[in-house]
Amino acid sequence: MINEAIRDKLALNSPSNAFNIADFGCSVGPNTFIAVQNIIEAVELKYHGNHQNHQSLEFQVFFNDHTNNDFNTLFKNLHHNHPRKFFAAGVPGTFHGRLFPKSSLHFGHSSFALQWLSKTPSEVLDTKSPAWNKGSIHCTGFHTEVAEAYSSQFKNDMETFLNARAQELVNGGLLVIIMPALQDGVLLSQSSIGVTFDLLGSCLQNMAQSGIISQEKVEAFNLPIYISPAKGLEALLQRNGFFSVEKIDRITSNMNTNTLTAQFLTSQLRAVTEELIKGHFGSEIVDAVFELFNIKLSENWFSIMDTKNQKFMDLFIILSRNFSD
Amino acid sequence: MINEAIRDKLALNSPSNAFNIADFGCSVGPNTFIAVQNIIEAVELKYHGNHQNHQSLEFQVFFNDHTNNDFNTLFKNLHHNHPRKFFAAGVPGTFHGRLFPKSSLHFGHSSFALQWLSKTPSEVLDTKSPAWNKGSIHCTGFHTEVAEAYSSQFKNDMETFLNARAQELVNGGLLVIIMPALQDGVLLSQSSIGVTFDLLGSCLQNMAQSGIISQEKVEAFNLPIYISPAKGLEALLQRNGFFSVEKIDRITSNMNTNTLTAQFLTSQLRAVTEELIKGHFGSEIVDAVFELFNIKLSENWFSIMDTKNQKFMDLFIILSRNFSD
To answer: What keywords does the record list, in alphabetical order (chains A, B) (predicted)?
Structure first.
């Protein structure tokens, strides 16, 4: 799909110098290397076909993630990932703001990063607010004011992301976004990922009841994650004046429940939430949280794996930077 | 001096986009941030005076060091070093080769990095070679064949460094190099730093005699550091066809021996050589090496601090990228 996007939608003359690619939310690899490799091969193919000057084209790839991402590991993985056809750089900092000079990128990429909010909306932690998310650690969808607070933070974050990228990308450049979304009418707690968040929340509640962690700490903890309804996300992208929506493809994630194990799902959730739990509750309780989660998941396996909870999809989005400002 | 260099020698039209700076051998800060801040202020001053368009000029700064440099610490230090006027990126990899696309840098900087060789010349570790450096861990200067092997490796490394930078810098761009050099006719073991290397070597010999480390390991250990005679370095720079030597200033490092302590000097040497010793002998012996070094340094303080050993200087070098290839 990236190949097609570059062939059909990349509206650039052959860059005189280097072709600059950035991956926003790269983590430590190897997924980011695979994505970048795909992009480079597609660009080489395009310029080889059209301009016969692919040999002189050089690539510079910028790997972006939070400052507390483990760039040392990223760079070591990159170093062992020979041969590579590009010059590499790591760029620390939040992508909800400018990271690059004006018009310095030809291609942006972001995979499974934009569901992360820049922060948990403050109202959902405020016991005096109608949006107080009592008894839950995420945006289940059942509580309207909570959903609105999360949705509003998400809109704000998507706008700051897109507006920053609009400045950094050259006119005609492409931005590919892959991110999870909900089917219309489905609430997060009715989806497979929402059910696991609920289960994680119940583990923290149990540990508070046992006095291992404080009730106040649990009430002050909400995941800064928002899975948008697909339609809302599409409307938000259409509304941004800097980009044209070239493509939105819906890819339904059908987990093969036959080969899944509780341990595997636990390790997946741990990879996603461990740093947050460590930061909020302290590193000494992390093992206990996920041991309890693993037990509860095994005990409730069949209700959690219920196929009516699998209404979850990923969106493959291609935006092109408009020529007019 | 950097200010003057940028004012008088930077032969660039105002860059249309960003002004790109790279620091080669940046370590983890804060020295690299101070250097970069100086460069940016001088460039802003120049374009403010000449072109009145400094407000639209953005800066992108690339921090380069080996892949095993602690970029996580660099990025955290950078993050806490507010406010900053530039977009930052870390670039892992050896500077004895290409790191950036062609003509993508306007200013290169390297401070106290080019005395590090890409490797210890193999002859000096070869017991069958006339250049075998028996009984020493560095290029003392007393052994002609050893000095030639080190000097040849240094020439080779300087050439690969300069040739790579020549491709990466735009025509008219500047390369500032600060590096140690020896006064003409002085051997390394006659300089303050050479004396401390000799002392470190004697510590390793003592530990081998005591059976703490093996004699073979000590014989297979030589520092990949070369302090060139100033004249030889100047000739080497003059010979490179890609750059013009705009300035070479000699700055004599006069250590204030009154305020120096053995502990301070030991910590300085440890900062420079710890990783090498750890990599070669194992981390478990590092503390013992520098404890012994500290004792020996205290015992021999007056002979080591002898002013006739201070014939040591730093060179401040400005090269400009020629317009003709």
So the answer is: Magnesium, Metal-binding, Methyltransferase, Transferase
* C-beta separation of B116 from B224 below 8 A: yes
The confidence score (pLDDT) of residue A47 equals: 82
pLDDT tier, B219 (very low <50, low <70, confident <90, very high otherwise): very high
* Three-point CA angle A174, A180, A186, nearest 5°: 135
HSE toward the beta carbon, residue B82, CA cutoff 13 A: 2
Tokens of residue B138, six digits: 């560095």
What predicted TM-score, i.e. pTM, was given to this entire model? 0.93
- Token look-up 């900053």 returns B84
Q: Share the mean pLDDT of chain A.
A: 91
Q: In which residue are the tokens 């008219």 written?
A: B172
Q: Which candidate in A56, A73, A80, A87 is best for mutational testing of the B interface (most B CBs within 10 A)?
A: A87
Least Cα separation, residue B268 to chain A (angstroms): 24
What's the CA gap between B277 and A277, in Å, rounded?
38
Give the mean pLDDT of A194-203. Answer: 94
Query: How buried is residue A211: exposed, middle or buried, by Cβ count under 10 Å (0-12/13-18/19+)?
Result: exposed
| pLDDT at residue A12 greater than cutoff 90 | no
**Mutate which: B33, B58, B66, B72, vs A, most A CBs within 10 A:** B72
Q: Which of A14-28, A282-296, B107-121, B137-151 has the lowest mean pLDDT?
A: A14-28
Q: What is the mean pLDDT of residues B22-41?
A: 94
Residue B70: closest C-alpha in chain A:
A72
Query: How far is the alpha carbon of B319 from chain A, nearest alpha carbon, in Å?
Result: 23
Residue A49 burial class via C-beta count within 10 angstroms: exposed 0-12, middle 13-18, buried 19 and up? exposed
- Cβ distance A72 to B76 less than 8 Å, yes or no, reads no
Helical segments of A220-281, H only: 230-239, 262-281
Q: Do A100 and B60 touch (CB under 8 A)?
A: yes
pLDDT of B51 reads: 53
AA letter at A261: T
Residue B278, chain A, CB below 8 Å: the answer is no
Q: What is the CA radius of gyration of chain B?
A: 21
Chain B residues whose CB is inside 8 A of the A71 CB are 71-72, 75, 90
Domains of chain B: 2-126+138-185+227-254+310-321 (3.40.50.150), 192-223+255-309 (1.10.1200.220)
What's the pLDDT score for residue A50? 58
Q: What value does the CA radius of gyration of chain A take, rounded to a whole number of Å?
A: 21
* Tens-digit pLDDT profile for residues A67-78: 999 999 999 999
Chain B residues with CB-CB distance to A93 below 8 A: 79, 88
HEC sequence for B9-27? HCCCCCCCCEEEEEEECCC
Distance CA B314, CA B251 (A): 5
Interface predicted TM-score (ipTM) over 0.95: no
